[in-house]
Amino acid sequence: MKFRRSERLVDMTHYLLDHPFQLVPLTFFADRYGSAKSSISEDLTIIKETFEHRGIGRLITVPGAAGGVKYIVKSHPDEAHAFINEMCETIANPDRLLPGGYLFMMDILGDPQVLKKVGRLIASAYSEKSIDVVMTVATKGIPIAYAAASFLNVPVVIVRSDSKVTEGSTVSINYVSGSSKRIQTMGLSKRSLAQGSRVLIVDDFMKAGGTINGMVSLLEEFNAAVAGISVLVESENAEGRLVNDYVSLVRLSDVDVKEKKITVKPGNYFDRL
Amino acid sequence: MKFRRSERLVDMTHYLLDHPFQLVPLTFFADRYGSAKSSISEDLTIIKETFEHRGIGRLITVPGAAGGVKYIVKSHPDEAHAFINEMCETIANPDRLLPGGYLFMMDILGDPQVLKKVGRLIASAYSEKSIDVVMTVATKGIPIAYAAASFLNVPVVIVRSDSKVTEGSTVSINYVSGSSKRIQTMGLSKRSLAQGSRVLIVDDFMKAGGTINGMVSLLEEFNAAVAGISVLVESENAEGRLVNDYVSLVRLSDVDVKEKKITVKPGNYFDRL
């Protein structure tokens, strides 16, 4: 059965979006539709232009026998600006205030449309680095890790403060929580992470960075490398920050419990691009 | 600027895939591309046919002034069969065996391509029900919950066994774990779930169903309704199962620690369709 161009465009768009960062040989599409490679090339030019024009991402063409086409997530700066400003407004809503000056964030972290955008932005920021795996710590970092990993098409590993029998043997470390100065433990299942992996660490919130620093130490135990660190929200007034090189989407400047005022600014996302 | 049909098809495919279960008015697309509604209708016919033919999903057209088009995830039975058989093989790998007869599953639960398919299948099974929210319990159910929720385009709420200061006030219940018969506690942040919500409960693993039964009890406290229950793996030899109406992708029949043999069969996914 032969396919018309219009049908190929729809199916190829779906296929590429579903397999980011994966090199797809042109022969794969040629066989799938019983079409000539020249027609597939023309289709890909249309998709590439539309993806770029609409800020969906980029199509990279690798020539040669081992070549093909690869979809890479790359969000448009306008999209990033709009979304980050929207997030600042959402987080500044005083209804989020909890006793002790904490902010309720589970509605944001539970919304798949928000997470998709967070994942797109984080994946875009690291789209030129080679990332093997996304790491986070349970529980609230998990949705962000999966969102970024699904756009980078790499696995997620989850560090835990409690070790479970269902994870097998675990490598654990002690670390000092930056803000509370308490000694805590975190561990990662031994078979979760291959030696030499290039790891993107993500989390929902970073204050002094003790938890993230703990994950960095844990990576050393696995002979794995930090390829990047990204958080949804960083706290501006963190004394003695332990982590310097990171990408944040949003910066929490001030929480005034008495006046019920939360001051939020864009993070360093754009400085790094 | 006017768009050619080929560009419209690529962008509309991306937009619809990105907004499942959302009614998009035809005027939205007409304005977006400066095209006549009749052209948009023709585009949608092509997309609809390709989505159905390729097992991507369905496009539902709602006529009238308040109408539009809606993309609904619906996986093809062939895709479901192939994936479930693949999962059975993957899970039956004796390397998964941990002391005590537990199975290591974090590689599966960390793989975004696997999760996408799990999410597609679960969302497909409930695509005709009206689901407001997906609920799970920390930690291992979380990736499955987000995968299903992203295809259903609804929020996720996470039940926890420990309550955190960052969640605000919590409704907690005690429940009896079906297998260990121990009394445990689980809680959900009060503002996570609106009264009357129709909730799809998901988890990675179900033995007797104590944890899922706990979530059902918790929903009663919120005056919310169970719209469905779905698990990736159910254990076949569970005495005194507490949950009857559920959808499972895979069924664990037997774990023979001595012979290092794991027996896995497809779950009841197809019986329910």
Tell me what the structure shows:
2 copies of one chain form a homodimer. By secondary structure, the first copy, chain A, is α/β, with parallel strands linked by helices. Chain A folds into 2 domains: 5-73, Arc Repressor Mutant, subunit A; 77-266, Rossmann fold (3-Layer(aba) Sandwich), CATH 3.40.50.2020. The first copy, chain A, has helices at residues 5-18, 26-33, 37-53, 77-91, 106-109, 112-125, 142-152, 210-221; strands at residues 57-62, 68-73, 133-137, 156-159, 170-176, 183-189, 198-206, 225-235, 247-256, 261-266. A 6-stranded mixed β-sheet of chain A has the order 4-3-7-8-9-10, with helices on both faces. The first copy, chain A, has a two-stranded antiparallel sheet with strand order 1-2. A two-stranded antiparallel sheet of chain A has the order 5-6. The longest helix of chain A is centred in the N-terminal third of the chain and has 17 residues, at 37-53. The model of chain A has no long low-confidence stretch (mean pLDDT 94). Chains A and B meet through helix 1, helix 3, helix 6, helix 7 and strand 4 of A and helix 1, helix 3, helix 6, helix 7 and strand 4 of B.
Tell me the count of domains of chain A: 2
Tell me roughly what share of residues is in helical segments of chain A: 25-40%
Instruction: Give the low-pLDDT segments of chain A.
Output: none
Oligomer: homodimer
SSE order of chain A in H/E notation? HHHEEHHHEHEEEEHEEE
Domain Phosphoribosyltransferase (chains A, B): 110-253
GO molecular function, one term (chains A, B): DNA binding
Domain Bacterial purine repressor N-terminal (chains A, B): 4-72
Subunit structure (chains A, B): Homodimer.
